[in-house]
Write a structure and sequence with these properties.
Elements (H helix, E strand, L loop, with lengths): L1 E7 L4 E11 L6 E7 L11 H8 L4 H4 L7 E8 L8 E4 L2 E13 L4 E11 L9 E2 L5 E3 L5 E2 L1 E2 L3 E2 L14 E9 L4 E4 L2 E7 L4 E10 L4 E4 L5 E4 L4 E4 L8 H19 L6 E4 L1 H6 L19 H17 L2 E2 L7 H18 L28 H11 L15 H23 L3 H13 L2 E2 L2 H11 L5 H9 L6 E8 L3 E8 L7 E7 L2 E8 L5 E7 L5 E4 L14 E3 L10 E5 L9 E11 L6 E8 L8 E10 L5 E12 L5 E16 L2 E15 L8 E16 L12 E13 L3 E11 L3 E13 L5 E14 L10 E2 L41 E2 L2 E12 L2 E11 L6 E13 L3 E9 L2 E2 L11 E4 L3 H12 L1
Parallel strand pairs: 1-13, 19-20, 21-22, 30-31
Antiparallel strand pairs: 1-2, 2-7, 3-6, 3-10, 4-7, 5-6, 8-9, 9-17, 11-12, 13-16, 14-17, 15-16, 18-19, 23-24, 24-27, 25-26, 25-28, 28-29, 31-32, 32-33, 33-34, 34-35, 35-36, 36-37, 37-38, 38-39, 39-40, 40-41, 41-44, 42-43, 44-45, 45-46, 46-47, 47-48, 47-49
C-alpha cells in the first residue's frame, strides 16, 4: 500500500493519492471490496460514532459546528487499468465503502485500487485525535484501509473504542507538508527532501496495522534507544531525569521481550493520548502533590501499560471488537507480573500506607495488584458486569475500559495458579511465537492450554469467559474425626469453578489444595494436620464474590465468629472483621435546621454489599435539636433476567420542615428494578416501588405554621419507565396513593428532543385525579398543586419548605402541575391536568409555556396558563425561570418582579454525582 498525502494546514485538509493492492485471503471469488474510511465517521450527527457520543452523554460533538467535524470527499476510485469503479457508503455505516469491481478476484489473487480523496480532519476535542488548536495534526485511523475477509467480511463503524480491524500491510507513506513541521511515525523513516511547497518525508514498514501519525511544529517526542527496539514517546514526567527515563524504558522493553518474545518492528510509538484513553485508574490519577508514589513510578506505570497494549495489538491480530478479551488479559496479566517482579511489596496506596492514622485502614494492607480484582468486583457487586466475550461495542464504558480488562487479567492468574507449572505463561509465549503478525482467534490459546495440562480447564473457557456467573463458596461445616477432618464446602452459586483450600497454623500457610466439582455441596476428608484453621481462597487469587464466610477454626464456636472492628471513614472490605464505619458529617439540608453536625455509623464498604445499614444522628445548629435518620436495606441481585434487582428496605428520619416544626417519617419499602438484559448500554430502565409512609408532625411553641390536617399514613405504589438519553429523553410514571382520607391516581409523561440544529424541544404532561377525598375542604395540604407541591410525603429537597416569601420560597421543583408562575388559584382537590412546553431560542435561553385545567369541588373547571423565559444552565439541576405572561397578566411589568423569578438548584451531592455516573454506567 502506498499513500501520498499533502497537508494543507490552513484548511486542515489532507489530499491523498493512494494505491492499494488487495489480496483475496478467502476461499471464494470476490466481486466487491469493503474499505473502511473512519475519518468519515465524523461527517454527520447520525453516524455510529455520533450516536456513541450521545449514549455516553458527551455533547461536544452534537453541539459542534460543521467546520469542526471532519469528513472525506472521494473524487475517484479506479482499478489498475485506471477504469473508474462504482462505489457507495453503506446506509448504516457511513464510514464503510463498498467498491464494485470490474473483474472478479479469485482466491489468492491481488487486485489494485487507486483512490483519490480529500480528508477534512476533525478537531481533536472529540477523541483527542485530529486537528489541534495550535494547528498540529494528531492522526489515528486516518486514511482508507480494507476490511478483513476470511470467507466473511469483517467490517464495523468507528465508535471511539480503538478497534479498527484491518489486515496487515506493507506500507509506504509519502508525506508533503510545510517546512516548519516535523512528522512522527512508528514506521521507519526512509528519507527527507525539500520541495517548493515545503518538505517531503517518506516512511515505510512491513506487516503493519498501526500507522498513527503526528505532524507538529514543535515535536515533544523522545527517541529512546534500548537493547530491544526504539521507543518514541511523548509520555513524560518533569521529575524524571533523562538517565532514569532511559533505564525505566530499557527495563520495560527487556521485560516485554523476555516474556513475550521479539517485537516484530524496529520502533514502538507510545503516546499520552493512548494512555489517556485507557489509563490505570485509581490513586495514580491524583494530582502530583497528592501522589502516594515515588517520583518516576507513575511515569513507569504509564509507559508500561501503554507499551503492553501496543506490543500485544501489534503482534497478535485478533478481531478487536468480537474477540478482544485475551489481548486485554495478556496486558493485565503481565502488568501484574511486572509489579510482582520489581515492586513486590508495593501497597495499593503507596507511601500513605505508612502514615499514622491511615495504616490502621484495611486499604493500607492491600497490595498494588489487588486493585485489579477490586475494580472488576465493583461491577460484579452492582450487577453490571458483562461476559468477557461480549462484543466490545456492547460493553458499558466502565467494563470496556476497566472491569473486563481486569477480570481477564485476574482470570489468567487464577488459571495459572490452578494449572501451575507456568503453563499459562508458556502457552501465551507459544501463542505469540506461532501466530505473530497473523490473524488469529482466542480459541487457539484454548487449544494450547488444553494440550499443555491434564487438568480440566473447561470451566475457564466456559463459565469464567462466556458468562456472568460468580464464584462464591463457603465452608459450611468442619468435623474432626479420629484420624481425619471432614470439611463440607458449599457452592453458593450455579457456577462450577475450582476453589483453593488452605490449612493455616497461626495464620501461616502449611498446606494448599484445589477442590473441583463442588456442585451444591461437597464434603472432603483430609488427614489431620497441625493447622488450627481452614480457609478458602486465602491468597485471594480467585475473584470471589464474597470472602466473609471462607474460613472455619478448629478451636470452637467463639473462634468462628468475626470480631467487631470500628473504623473512622469508609474502607475496603476486610473479610476477617465485622466492620462498622464512623464518618463525621457536616451538611446543609434546609434553612430551618441550618448547618447540621453529626456522624454516620454504617457498614457500607467501598464495594457494595447486599445488606447495608446506617444510622446518622445530627445536631441542627439553627433548630438546636437532634435530627437525622437511619435505614436498613437488603438487595437481591438477579442475573440474566430483565428484573435484575430487588431491594427491601426500612428507613426513618427526623428533621425540621418549618421554624420550630418537626416531622418524623418511617418508611418500609420494596423496589423492583428492570433493564434490558440484552443491551446493558441502553438507558431504558423500569422501576416499581411499593412503600408505606407513616408521617408524624408536631409543632413547638415558636412555630409559625399551623397544622390543618392530623398526622397520617399513606400507601404509595409508583411505576417509572424511562429512557433518558442526551438527544431523546422519554420518561413516564404512574402513581397511586391511598390514605385514610384520600385516594389519588396520577400520571406524568415527559419528552425532550435535541434537534440537529441544537434546539431543545421539551414536552411534559401531568394528569391527577382524586379517587376519593375526605380531607379538610379548607385545606390544600393534600391537593394537587400547579407550581409548588406541598410535598406531604416529604420526597422533595426543599430548602425552605414552609416559606411563603423570600428566595427560598422561589425554589422550583418540577412536579405535578409544573407551572412557574404563582397564580391566585393554584391547587385542585378534585382533578388537574397540565401541559408544559419549552423550546430553545438561542444557546441556553429557552421559551416556555404552560397550560392546564384544574377542578375543585363545588366549582367549575378553570383554565390556567403561564409563559416566560428559561435559562437552562444544567438541565434538571440548575435552571432559572423568568415569568412573562400568565393569568396574572404581564408579570414582567408588575411590581416586585424579582420575587416572581423561580430557581431550580440542587445541593445534594448524590444527585450531582449522577451526572458523572451516567457517562460510565
Amino acid at each position: 500500500m502506498e499513500v501520498n498525502a499533502y497537508f494543507e494546514v490552513n484548511t486542515k485538509t489532507i489530499k491523498v493519492e493512494q494505491q492499494l493492492q488487495y489480496k483475496n485471503e478467502g476461499n471464494q471469488p470476490l466481486q466487491v471490496i469493503y474499505l473502511q474510511d473512519w475519518n468519515n465517521s465524523y461527517s454527520t450527527k447520525n453516524t455510529p460514532l455520533a450516536k456513541r457520543f450521545t449514549e455516553e452523554f458527551d455533547s461536544k460533538f452534537h453541539f459542534a459546528r460543521k467546520g469542526e467535524r471532519g469528513y472525506t470527499n472521494i473524487e475517484i476510485i479506479t482499478n489498475a487499468s485506471l477504469e473508474s469503479l462504482n462505489f457507495e457508503y453503506l446506509p448504516d455505516h457511513p464510514d464503510i465503502i463498498k467498491v464494485f469491481l470490474a473483474e472478479i478476484i479469485n482466491p489468492g489473487e491481488y487486485y489494485t485500487l487507486n483512490l483519490s480523496y480529500d480528508l477534512i480532519i476533525p478537531n481533536d476535542e472529540f477523541t483527542s485525535f485530529g486537528f489541534t488548536e495550535d494547528s498540529n495534526f494528531k492522526l489515528k485511523y486516518w486514511y482508507i484501509v480494507p476490511a478483513v475477509f476470511n470467507g466473511t467480511w469483517h467490517y464495523f463503524s468507528n465508535k471511539n473504542i480503538y478497534d479498527l480491524y484491518t489486515p496487515k500491510a506493507d506500507i509506504v507513506l509519502k508525506l508533503e507538508f510545510p517546512r516548519n513541521y516535523i512528522a512522527i511515525s512508528e514506521l521507519n523513516l526512509v528519507g527527507t527532501e525539500l520541495t517548493t511547497r515545503g518538505q517531503k518525508m517518506t516512511f515505510s514498514g512491513k506487516d503493519r496495522i498501526n500507522t498513527d501519525l503526528y505532524l507538529q511544529r514543535q515535536a515533544n517526542f523522545k527517541f529512546i534507544q534500548t537493547d530491544n527496539f526504539t521507543v518514541l514517546t511523548d509520555i513524560s514526567d518533569k521529575k524524571v531525569m533523562p538517565m532514569q527515563t532511559a533505564l525505566i524504558t530499557d527495563r520495560i522493553t527487556s521485560f516485554l521481550t523476555n516474556n513475550l518474545g521479539t517485537y516484530p518492528h524496529e520502533q514502538m510509538l507510545l503516546t499520552s493520548i493512548d494512555y489517556k484513553h485507557e489509563p490505570l485508574y485509581g490513586l495514580n490519577q491524583l494530582p502530583n502533590f497528592l501522589s502516594p508514589f515515588s517520583d518516576g513510578f507513575e511515569f513507569e506505570l504509564k509507559l508500561l501499560k501503554t507499551a503492553l497494549k501496543r506490543y500485544v495489538e501489534n503482534s497478535l491480530l485478533f478481531n478487536p471488537r468480537e474477540d478482544n478479551w485475551l489481548s486485554d488479559g495478556i496486558q493485565i496479566f503481565y502488568m501484574m507480573k511486572y509489579m510482582e517482579t520489581y515492586y513486590p511489596d508495593l501497597k495499593l496506596i503507596g507511601k500513605w500506607a505508612d502514615f499514622w492514622g491511615i495504616k490502621a485502614f484495611h486499604a493500607a494492607d492491600l497490595l498494588f495488584n489487588e486493585q485489579f480484582n477490586l475494580f472488576f468486583m465493583q461491577m460484579a457487586r452492582t450487577n453490571r458486569d458483562q461476559p468477557l466475550t461480549t462484543a466490545k461495542d456492547s460493553l458499558l464504558k466502565f467494563n470496556a475500559r476497566i472491569a473486563n480488562k481486569y477480570k481477564a487479567g485476574v482470570g489468567l492468574r487464577y488459571l495459572d495458579d490452578f494449572v501451575n507449572s507456568d503453563v499459562v505463561e508458556k502457552s501465551i509465549r507459544k501463542l505469540m511465537d506461532e501466530n505473530r503478525l497473523e490473524l488469529t482467534k482466542s480459541e487457539k490459546f484454548e487449544e494450547i492450554i488444553q494440550e499443555s495440562t491434564e487438568k480440566d480447564v473447561n470451566w475457564f473457557f466456559g463459565d469464567y469467559i462466556n458468562s456472568r456467573k460468580k464464584i462464591d463458596y463457603k465452608i459450611k461445616s468442619l468435623e474432626t474425626l479420629e484420624d481425619s477432618i471432614a470439611i463440607t464446602i458449599r457452592n453458593k452459586r450455579k457456577s462450577n469453578m475450582p476453589i483453593s483450600l488452605f490449612t493455616l497454623q497461626n495464620d501461616n500457610v502449611i498446606a494448599k489444595r484445589w477442590i473441583e466439582d463442588v456442585g451444591k455441596e461437597k464434603t472432603i476428608t483430609i488427614p489431620k494436620e497441625n493447622g488450627d484453621k481452614f480457609a478458602l481462597n486465602y491468597d485471594q487469587t480467585i475473584p470471589e464474590f464474597n470472602l466473609r464466610d471462607n474460613w472455619k477454626s478448629k478451636k470452637g464456636f467463639f473462634f468462628n465468629h468475626r470480631p467487631l472492628q470500628i473504623r473512622l471513614f469508609k474502607d475496603f472490605e476486610d473479610p476477617n472483621y465485622n466492620q462498622v464505619f464512623l464518618m463525621p458529617m457536616l451538611e446543609f439540608r434546609n434553612i430551618y435546621d441550618g448547618i447540621t453536625i453529626g456522624a454516620k455509623f454504617y457498614n457500607k464498604t467501598i464495594l457494595r454489599k447486599k445488606f447495608n445499614y446506617k444510622f446518622a444522628p445530627q445536631f441542627g445548629t439553627k433548630s438546636k435539636i437532634l435530627t437525622g435518620g437511619g435505614s436498613v436495606s437488603f438487595t437481591h441481585n438477579i442475573e440474566d433476567r430483565d428484573l435484575y434487582n430487588i431491594t427491601y428496605g426500612f428507613g426513618g428520619s427526623y428533621r425540621s420542615y418549618g421554624r420550630d416544626a418537626f416531622v418524623r417519617v418511617l418508611t418500609p419499602s420494596v423496589s423492583f428494578l428492570f433493564r434490558n438484559e440484552d443491551d446493558f448500554r441502553s438507558n431504558e430502565s423500569k422501576y416499581l416501588n411499593f412503600r408505606y409512609l407513616s408521617i408524624d408532625r408536631h409543632l413547638g411553641d415558636n412555630a409559625q405554621i399551623t397544622l390543618t390536617e392530623p398526622n397520617y399514613s399513606v400507601f404509595n405504589l409508583r411505576y417509572i419507565n424511562s429512557n433518558k438519553g442526551l438527544i431523546k429523553y422519554k420518561s413516564w410514571f404512574s402513581d397511586l396513593q391511598f390514605g385514610p382520607k384520600f385516594g389519588k391516581l396520577s400520571f406524568n409523561y415527559e419528552f425532550r428532543h435535541l434537534s440537529q440544529t441544537n434546539r431543545l424541544f421539551s414536552f411534559r404532561t401531568f394528569a391527577g385525579l382524586f379517587l376519593y377525598n375526605k380531607t379538610n375542604p379548607e385545606s390544600n395540604y393534600f391537593s394537587f398543586a400547579l407550581d409548588r407541591p406541598t410535598d406531604y410525603l416529604f420526597d422533595y429537597n426543599y430548602l425552605g419548605r414552609s416559606e411563603s416569601s423570600g428566595i427560598f420560597s422561589q425554589q422550583l421543583i418540577i412536579a405535578e402541575g409544573g407551572f412557574k408562575s404563582v397564580l391566585e388559584e393554584s391547587f385542585a382537590n378534585q382533578w388537574m391536568t397540565t401541559v408544559n412546553l419549552g423550546y430553545t431560542i438561542w444557546n441556553i435561553i429557552e421559551a416556555y409555556g404552560d397550560v392546564g385545567f384544574l377542578k375543585n369541588k363545588d366549582s367549575s373547571a378553570r383554565f390556567v396558563y403561564d409563559s416566560g423565559i428559561r435559562l437552562n444552565l444544567v438541565a434538571d439541576y440548575f435552571e432559572v425561570y423568568f415569568p412573562v405572561y400568565s393569568n396574572l397578566g404581564w408579570e414582567i411589568a408588575q411590581p416586585n418582579y424579582d420575587q416572581k423569578i423561580r430557581f431550580v438548584f440542587t445541593v445534594d451531592p448524590q444527585a450531582l454525582l449522577g451526572l458523572f455516573r451516567r457517562r460510565w454506567y
